[in-house]
Amino acid sequence: MMPTAMKRTIFHIVVALAAAAVATGALAHGTPEGMLRIKQYMQTGVPAPYGELKNPLQASAATIARGRALYDEHCARCHGARGLGDGPDLKELKLPPADLVHMLDMLPMNDDFFLWAVSEGGVPFGSQMPAFKDVLARDDIWRVIAFMRAGFPR
Questions:
Q1: Would you call 31 exposed, middle or buried from its count of C-beta atoms within 10 A (0-12, 13-18, 19+)?
Q2: Half-sphere exposure of 36 (CA within 13 A, CB side)
Q3: Which residues contact 13 (CB under 8 A, 6 or more apart)?
Q4: How far apart are CA 30 and CA 58, in angstroms?
Q5: Residue 60's Cα: distance from chain center in Å?
Q6: 4-49+56-149 carries CATH number 3.40.50.300
Q7: pLDDT tens-place string over residues 53-102
Q8: Other CB atoms within 10 Å distance of the CB of residue 121
Q9: Residue 40 burial by CB count (10 A; 0-12/13-18/19+): exposed, middle or buried?
Q10: What is the per-residue pLDDT across 88-130, written as a single tens digit (0 to 9) for each?
């Protein structure tokens, strides 16, 4: 477990980077509501069932291809084909979906963060992102994360 002082320092760095990204329009989910999950993650980590979990799947071509298909089916309408938060359903949402490309570049957004976010959705943080824990098997969520980490290959 990371020491509290180090978590605070990293949190302040991430918030400063996120604020700069918001100012330049780089992070679509830069609303106060959108930053709530990041703030919680930096202050207390992810909730117990997700803490410190790492993707158990190899990032093989087959895993990434299946992750891409799942992403296209369940995520792209909001997050966009390239993960930029610019999907065709953007206009129907009260908050813009996360720009996943920039989320993946923020440190330290570990696998447990993305597993938690996809599994539990965004309702507790004021967004309309549905929870996928009852829609997708955990390994399918890991496949989506592997696809995202592979750089949204097309």
A1: middle
A2: 11
A3: none
A4: 31
A5: 21
A6: no
A7: 999 999 999 999 999 999 999 999 999 999 999 999 999 998 899 999 98
A8: 17
A9: middle
A10: 999 999 889 999 998 888 767 899 999 999 999 998 898 899 9
If phi over 0 gives left and psi between -120 and 50 gives alpha, with beta otherwise, what is residue 88? alpha
Q: What is residue 57's predicted lDDT score, i.e. its pLDDT?
A: 98
Residues 59, 135: Cα–Cα separation, whole Å: 22
Q: Find all residues with CB under 8 Å of 17, minimum gap 6, and list them.
A: 106
Q: What is the pTM of this model?
A: 0.80
Domain ranges of the chain: 4-49+56-149
Q: Which long-range contacts (CB under 8 A, 24 or more apart) does 83-92 make?
A: 83/148, 83/152, 84/28, 85/28, 85/29, 86/28
Rounded Cα distance between 141 and 149, Å, is 12
Give the per-residue SS3 of 24-50: CCCCCCCCHHHHHHHHHHHHHCCCCCC
What lies within 8 Å, CB to CB, of 38 at 6+ separation is: 14, 15, 18, 106
